[in-house]
Amino acid sequence: MDVGCGDGLLARKLAGRAKHVTGIDKSPHMIACARESAVGHPQLTFVEGDFLTAELPGAEYDFVCSVTTIHHMDFETALVHMRELLRPGGTLVVVGLAREASVTEWAALIAAAPIVRITKVLRRARGPQGMPVADPQVSYGQVRAAARRLLPGVRYRRHVLRRYSLTWEKPAR
């Protein structure tokens, strides 16, 4: 399951390693792009809808991921829902955006900005056209604390560009 699949790029890459991949996104434009690019790939399914309210089968997915999407939702509610969708032994990976809440965090962002900008220019990096954008509301500390409470044993890492990652394996029964 790719939560907030956007134009389906990650879902298409995952389809090379999985029998079936479901992508979900709230944006009708993004889902239309994902479906268009998935023509001829029967192992891909794209659902247009709100991840938090959509009818999805529980405890059925081997892998659930979300890349720079969880900040568009209530963080804890989304994390719990992703956890519930995993089968025992399944893996959850979240790459999210957080906001700076301390002088140290702001200093790290400012120090990394020139390198990040140069790298983006050299790689000609850009997001999919029409992708919804939102500022993160949850700080790094809030993300780390909630993830540790909701996902015992989670691996938390902080990255540049306001990003962090969470990796968690649901205990086998």
Structure description:
The chain is α/β, with parallel strands linked by helices. Helices cover 35% and strands 24% of the residues. A 7-stranded mixed sheet has the order 3-2-1-4-5-7-6, sandwiched between helices. Helix 2 links the parallel strand 2 (21-25) and strand 3. Helix 3 runs parallel beside helix 5 (140-150). It is globular and about 45 Å long. The two termini are 21 Å apart.
CATH architecture: 3-Layer(aba) Sandwich
Q: Quote the distance from N terminus to C terminus.
A: 21 Å
Helix tally equals 5
Order of helices and strands: EHEHEEHEHHEE
User: What is the gyration radius calculated from CA atoms?
Assistant: 16 Å
- Per CATH, the superfamily is Vaccinia Virus protein VP39
The CATH topology corresponds to Rossmann fold
Fraction of helical residues = 25-40%
Question: β content, as a range?
Answer: 15-25%
Would you tell me the overall average pLDDT?
89
Question: Reading side by side through the largest sheet, how are the strands ordered?
Answer: 3-2-1-4-5-7-6
Number of strands: 7
Q: Unreliable segments (pLDDT under 50, ≥5 consecutive)?
A: none
